[in-house]
């Protein structure tokens, strides 16, 4: 009975035992109404556990890491049982991580196949724990503001599992499709200039923006960045602060002196994001300062907003 009482208390409930000599014992177990027993598929993204209720799940398959990029970019359609699925890394939808960590490159990663209404969605995850019976508890007031979350639960070892709302995931996917169509119609004319002394940052940022439809040019320092900005007249400029020959602060100020570049959106991507650095960037003429490294989805969303505001101002 101690084991039962302990489990009930973990659920926020209570156990009352009443005994009457000659009649027997009555047990009254009470648990909060906000909880219910469900079956869910539990999986991990980065260091967090998530779950999806089983009634939305068609199947689970595995995909070699080497094929993931093709499915994510759409260069290869993902087809299963003659159905074409919209293929997404769930870490991108939830956390802005475009692709699983390269630590998984030797593995075949699990892909959860969902059918929600008439939408077929394949969601790639990092690690699959499997189907579990869970007590689904309504999220608290803070988590209730996060629309992707339908509830929370606990694993036997005490780890928290966030249960996702599949209907909301469908809405995110449909919205992403509409935004993709809109981007294709307007972004072919958008040109971005990336200025950074790190070849890794230049290469990764260029690849990200090109995958989202931008024409991208790069420069390896502030002086080269100014020359290319004056020659190319890009629609948006992304730059670092600490660079040889000309700092990011001086580059921003120089760009703002050019009549054709005076209103061009400038985004600073820097490890320096303290109040004094942000203030100095804004004083020089930057539109936005983001901490580096910046989540892919967050950066793309900010660019959408800046370019949209620029178009409205014309």
Number of strands: 17
Give, in spatial order, the strands making up the sheet with the most strands: 10-3-4-12-11
Low-confidence stretches: none
Helix share bin: 25-40%
Relative strand content? 25-35%
Taking the alpha carbons of the first and last residues, their distance comes to 73 Å
The run of helices and strands is HEEEEEHEEHEEEEEHEHEHEHEHEH
Separate helix tally: 9
The class by helix and strand makeup works out as alpha/beta
**Radius of gyration over C-alpha positions, nearest whole angstrom:** 25 Å
The coarse silhouette is elongated
Mean model confidence by pLDDT: 82
User: Biggest β-sheet, characterized?
Assistant: 5 strands, mixed
Topology, element by element:
Elements: H1 2-10, E1 14-20, E2 24-30, E3 35-45, E4 48-53, E5 57-64, H2 65-73, E6 78-80, E7 83-89, H3 90-95, E8 108-116, E9 119-124, E10 127-137, E11 149-154, E12 160-164, H4 166-186, E13 191-195, H5 199-211, E14 215-219, H6 222-232, E15 236-239, H7 248-257, E16 266-270, H8 275-284, E17 288-291, H9 296-313
Parallel strand pairs: 4-12, 7-9, 13-14, 13-15, 15-16, 16-17
Antiparallel strand pairs: 1-2, 3-4, 3-10, 5-8, 6-7, 8-9, 11-12
